[in-house]
Write a structure and sequence with these properties.
Blueprint lengths: L22 H18 L6 H20 L1 E2 L2 E2 H13 L11
Helix pairs in contact: 1-2
């Protein structure tokens, strides 16, 4: 019987939590819900504004966990975007003389 070596998959994250979530996704969802819950504790805001702020922050956590932009995770895309925005973009053409 022939055997071929199977390459290790190193480009994808391993799904640890129930085979559905990676550790990174779990952290983003938990952080979104925790920060949303903390923002719900702002008692100086009206109730509707607290609910709105909670849902916006919680949805932000879910977007960071699940969404993709240009086949990249959103956190990776944002990191590369801000890195690109801060990098100098001067091009110098050197002549042949």
């Amino acid at each position: 019987m022939r055997a071929w070596p199977v390459p290790i998959q190193i480009t994808d994250e391993e799904r640890l939590i129930g085979g559905k979530l990676t550790l990174r996704q779990l952290v983003y969802i938990a952080a979104g819900l925790a920060l949303g819950g903390a923002s719900f504790g702002f008692t100086f805001l009206p109730l509707l504004a607290r609910f709105t702020l909670f849902f916006l922050v919680a949805i932000g956590g879910f977007v960071l966990a699940y969404a993709r932009i240009y086949h990249m995770r959103v956190d990776q895309y944002l990191y590369l975007y801000f890195k690109w925005r801060r990098s100098p973009r001067f091009l110098f053409l050197k002549g042949g003389n």
